[in-house]
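Entry type: protein chain
Record version: 2
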Amino acid sequence: QGRLVESGGGLVQAGGSLRLSCAGSGRTFSPYAMGWFRQAPGKERKFVAAISWYGTGVTNYEDSVKGRFTISRDNTKNTVYLQMNSLKPEDTAVYYCAARRGSSTDWSNKSTLDYWGQGTQVTVSS
């Protein structure tokens, strides 16, 4: 039974940086695309970024984070990372790690995800 555990959230000032990590356990996540969603208070959970498992990794980003966030993964460690730079107050949310079997990084349908982490809070103060 696979499991995803996020870490690295916290409180940061606007313009600052944070690096989130998501460690998979219980199975190898190499055949899975991995990525991140976020959910702000009172809003639905939304896609942030995803990366495929093969080669250097095909990536996909939500428009508002392009150029500021970078997703990467280390298959040897079953871990995916989200480097977040130039953070804005509107980035404040609970960030969830997710995984879906296969290579696609088109994650427009949340119901197709196979695994979810428990979430980590990111708060950006103005």
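Comment: The chain has a mean pLDDT of 94.
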